[in-house]
Structures are given as C-alpha cells and as structure tokens.
Design brief:
five-stranded parallel beta sheet; alpha/beta; 42% helix
Length: 157
C-alpha cells in the first residue's frame, strides 16, 4: 500500500515546511508516501464559496485513480486516538488496497462531488487548525501510527 496526501495550496512558513519535510522523511522508512500540492485556485476572490469548492473538487478528483481509497480530513469526520488510527492504517493495509489517499480541502471544505466519491472522513480535532498545520499533524500521526504498529518507542503508552 502507498499513502498519498493531497492538499490545496503551498506551505508558506519555512519552519512548518521543515517539520513537514522531516516527518515525511521519517515516514518513508515505513511506507511509500507522497505529499502532492494542488495549486490554489486563481482569482478565487471572484468566485463564490460553492464555485471555489467545485473547482477545487475537480482538481482533487483528477488526481485520483479508480482503485484509490479516498479519506477526507473533515471537521465532521470520525475522531480517533493515535492507537485507533494505527489500527485504522493496519486495517487498510490488510485489505489489500493499492493506495490510500488522504485529502486536506481548501478553506471552505469539499464539494459534494468529492464527498460522494470519498470512502470515509477523519477529524483530527474539534478545534480549527490552519490547513498548513494540518499537513504537519497528519504526517506526524501517520509516522506515529507506524511506530505504534512496529512497537517502537516513539509513542509512549
């Protein structure tokens, strides 16, 4: 199984990008992982929220393969602790899927088309975080999940 993280817009903060790079590198010891950035929509200020979500949704869907399992990082998704998340990853690996795709949407969330195509939703917290910080948090949690599965000391139980 491979894991791909799709995110809208680049990370502007160099310190945050450095941490994202660090955890991406660490995660690479456990699984084939990629972070793919979908460029911000041009002239978004001239679009309604619905139009922006629709355009972002088209870009997200165009990045998917037919066999991908699509999981949205969504405020209304299921909340898991780190051990539950590691078990969630293991379940997907055991199912024989080729690629798990996690998606961080744009500022207004996802279009109906993306929701309809998704196989599930996960929430990192009831709190709101910047989309750039969510990238770091989910990559760190993926890394933590794999250290849990390997019984390595990174996660203290």
């Amino acid at each position: 199984m491979t894991i791909k993280l799709l995110a809208i817009g680049k990370t502007d903060n160099k310190n945050l990008q450095s941490l994202i790079d660090e955890y991406t590198k660490r995660l690479g010891f456990y699984i084939k992982f990629s972070l793919e950035i979908i460029p911000d929509i041009k002239n978004a200020k001239n679009l309604s929220k619905k139009q922006q979500k629709q355009k972002e949704g088209e870009l997200i869907i165009n990045k998917l393969n037919m066999s991908d399992v699509l999981i949205l990082l969504d405020e209304n998704g299921k909340q898991l602790d780190s051990i539950e998340f590691s078990n969630y990853l293991q379940k997907h690996m055991n199912s024989g899927i080729k690629q798990l795709v996690l998606v961080i949407g744009g500022p207004y969330g996802f279009s109906e088309d993306v929701y309809n195509k998704s196989n599930g939703k996960i929430s990192l917290s009831k709190m709101t975080f910047s989309h750039q910080m969510v990238r770091l948090f989910i990559i760190e949690q993926l890394y933590r999940g794999f250290t849990i599965l390997k019984n390595e000391p990174y996660h203290h139980r």
